[in-house]
Amino acid sequence: MDVIFDTKSLYYLPQYLPVYNELCKLGIKSTFVFYDGVHNDVINKIISDEKLQHFWVKDEEKAAAYYEERKADWVFFSNTFHYLDRVHKVSKTAQMAHGIGPKTSYYTQSSRPMGVRFVEGAYRTQRLREMFPNDVFVDVGFCKLDPIFNGEISDISLSETYGLKDDFPTILYAPTFYPSSIECFPADWPAEFKDFNIIIKPHYFSLSKSKYYKQQALLKTWSEFDNVYLAKVEDYSLVPFLSISDVLVSDASSSLFEFALLNKPVIWCDFLKLRLGYRGIFSYRFKKRMDKDYGDYSNIAVHAKKYENLKSLIVQQLDNPEEFESIRLEMSEKLAGKVDGSASKRIVEYVMSNI
């Protein structure tokens, strides 16, 4: 069997790699298609570290031409692809979303149907089947966290790896790029948390796109504090940070739910920097961007209405991590389905039985 992973964005890798590793165990050949861009050096290092067979393309049209020539059994995507009709003439296609967040884009990604979409849980599977009754959706769970549940990520030293204190509680701040809480944090906020480690893992776009230069300036300022580790572009995976952190602070990011699946406390920032076109009479645009289950999902965390509430909530949740445990456990099935470390195995079993 021959498998290709279309890797248009670097942040697709954490979802792909558990499946790739399962394929490797069976001796199945896989190739990652990377798109030429500003972070080629970073990608080349990842290719070397992970020993990935790979192919470079300029754009989606070039990728489609490669897929037509290669005629692999399966091509995996993490988002829409404009040349699916061409790919479907030579290969089967599969889609794996790169996150399980509260944005409507999770569902609109299926408006251009792949051969199959692997979905996290019975609830999301049923919703997608109702929205797109002619397409194929298979509930497998959330494979991104398989390495944590399988114990493949462990024994990470905070001091040796990130220059932080091994005996300090660790806050993971993982904001999304939009709508984001980044601009609502003070320039000196790490000083208020001097007795905590702070790992800041922004979205890839916050680090790489020039339009977010204000976010980048704040991130650089925060990185200069001794108790802060700012994840770089090469820290493409959130998974190791989820594993070693004690509490997560975020906004409308899928990291909220990924952390909650580990049954650890989450602080949801309700204070966001909204563009003018999303405020006041235009607030409906923000609501349209969020999924209809946004309100239900929000119950999984304690909410910080403003930055000034944040520290007391963090301390309170670290002292009482069990407060939202029942809700986290109850919501885990709706968010991600099975969390048994075997989602990637189920994906591989499906593709092997459907060549």
UniProtKB/TrEMBL annotation:
Keywords: Transferase. GO terms for cellular component: membrane. One of its GO terms (molecular function) is CDP-glycerol glycerophosphotransferase activity. The keyword Ligase does not apply. Pfam families: Glyphos_transf. This is CDP-glycerol glycerophosphotransferase.
